[in-house]
Design brief:
This is MITD1 protein. Pfam families: MIT (PF04212), MIT_C (PF16565). It comes from Ptilonorhynchus violaceus. This protein has two domains: 73 residues, Methane Monooxygenase Hydroxylase, Chain G, domain 1, CATH 1.20.58.80; 161 residues, Endonuclease, Chain A (2-Layer Sandwich), CATH 3.30.870.30. The longest helix has 21 residues. Strand 2, helix 6 and strand 3 form a beta-alpha-beta unit. By secondary structure, the chain is α/β, with parallel strands linked by helices. It has a seven-stranded mixed β-sheet, covered by helices on one side.
Length: 244
């Protein structure tokens, strides 16, 4: 399994699909090292380590893509910045997060202070979070747990916020997904993390879409057709994802 995963990483690398290839490289090498760790025969361990090292150097750290790969993953960390222009379209959640979701994603952390009442400040924060959850349920990832950290709505909106989040929680449970909700009065950062190591920071959080012109206007249902507010998306990759 480890060898096949790394071979898949090489194929993705050749295709310049660097985000996906990085995850496959790490998962493949981890699987191979688990075999070494489980082997009790010291002679076999040494042979396995040598073979992994030789193969790693031959397949991954050589060839014409090395310079481009090292530029992409400078200092062993990946960072990409995506600029969403004012009124731009084509940035629905599926397209924005597609490169960072794969079969090994089972746990997601969402930190956003404005997952609140649906009509608060003419925003659709709860609906945006629901759409994000729908994307996770559809796959290709196999998400089992979603952690949400947000802030309480103010005034009379709090009861509707709690009711909406509870309805999302119950609905997710029908798909075998657990939603854990925590609140903080001092939260300001907006970020989304997946347990395959990807971290996405969006300047406006999940609320980067403009209000639709009407319930029957193009873009009301399909977020790819919805005009966006100007914002910046920063994508990072780390070996392990920190839990809240």
């Amino acid at each position: 399994a480890g060898a096949e995963t790394v071979k898949r990483a090489v194929e993705l690398d050749v295709a310049s699909r660097f985000q996906e290839s990085l995850v496959c490289y790490q998962e493949g090498i981890d699987l191979l090292l688990q075999v070494v760790k489980a082997t009790k025969d010291e002679a076999k361990k040494r042979r396995y380590r040598q073979k992994i090292s030789e193969w790693f150097n031959m397949e991954i750290m050589s060839g014409p893509l090395l310079k481009k790969r090292l530029t992409f993953f400078s200092d062993g960390k990946y960072h990409q910045q995506i600029r969403i222009e004012e009124n731009a379209t084509g940035f629905g959640y599926e397209k924005l997060f597609h490169d960072y979701l794969n079969e090994i994603v089972s746990e997601v952390w969402v930190e956003d202070p404005y997952i609140r009442h649906v009509h608060q400040a003419s925003r659709y924060w709860l609906y945006n979070f629901l759409r994000f959850c729908e994307m996770l349920v559809k796959g290709p990832c196999k998400v089992k747990t979603i952690h949400l950290l947000t802030s309480y709505d103010e005034g009379s909106g709090r009861s509707q916020q709690m009711s909406g989040l509870e309805e999302i929680r119950q609905s997710l449970s029908n798909y075998g997904v657990t939603l854990n909700i925590d609140f903080s009065s001092s939260i300001h950062d907006r970020e989304i993390r997946f347990n395959n190591g990807w971290m996405i920071k969006i300047g406006r959080g999940l609320d980067y879409f403009k209000k639709p012109q009407g319930r029957f206007s193009i873009g009301y249902c399909d977020f790819d057709l919805r005009p966006c507010h100007e914002t910046t998306v920063d994508v990072f990759h780390t070996k392990h994802t920190k839990k809240m």
